[in-house]
Structure prediction request, 333 residues.
Amino acid sequence: MTDEIVSTEKASRLAPGQRTAGTHDVAATPLRHPGRWVAATVLITLCTGWLFSLWHNPNIEHLTIADFLFDGRIVRGVLLTVALTGCSMALATTLAILLAVMRLSANPVLRVMSWAYTWFFRGTPLLVQIVFWGYLGLLYQTLSLGIPFTSIQFASADTNVIVTPFVAGLLALGMNEAAYASEIVRAGLLSVDHGNVEAAHSLGMSPAYTLRRIVLPQAMRVIIPPMGNETISMLKNTALLQLIAVPELYTQTSWISAQNLRQVELLIVASAWYLVLTSVLSVPQYYLERRYGRGTDRSLPLTPWQRARGLVGRVRTRVAQVAHTDARTEGDA
Prediction:
């Protein structure tokens, strides 16, 4: 009887949410981490202070930034940067798939050629390759099409006419990126269970059809994330084409700053456009990763749009509940 009275007194001192769990249950309190909040506060304060000091720096002319942010030359440089990135990645992806298949081939000649290509283009700086393609006319005055080791030629043209600065930059960026992308594709192909390939061959599928319909769709889950990062890196590497006078975004800002001597302001303009472009490229990468990752999780995580819609729905539901409660209170009064 005494124990029952003590238990009743303890239960009466518990919070309402704790009484329902039972008087003998242990109420677990989450461990607090004040250090995390302190570190986050310090970082936010430092970043805010740096941005504030940068924006209010008297040596920066904000009118210059506003004037050149959407200048026609800057916009043309942005469009050329996007075109270079897309064409270079298309060339690099095509070569990467070919090189990866050659590397995994049973033919030793194809394996050696694929390894040599990757070894050479990964072992030499991208800057050197850009300069080489830009000054290809110094080595070959003309480019001809004919039968090798004979004097028979079907067509011939001046090298500088064919290999323009745009083409030189495209070849340099695409062929260099292919060496890195081929290793990404090869890793994705190796991640697919070989039993799937054997099952496809047992059904009479050809090796090419098996690669296109069975292996590559499964390998994309491994390929997409690093290839998305390589695409963003390619976008920023286009700035190196200033060496061969390709009028992309960074080259345009450099030419303008050489005229008005506002280097910092034009660098801010270029950085703003690069941030916008990389943010835009991150959107398709996210949805591609989500699409090809459907077979790995039981349920896919919500997209930012779905989270925003859910938040708006919860807010509307809460507002409706509050309005209904207020109306009922007024009715009772």
Notes: The two ends are 47 Å apart (CA to CA). The longest strand covers residues 153-158.
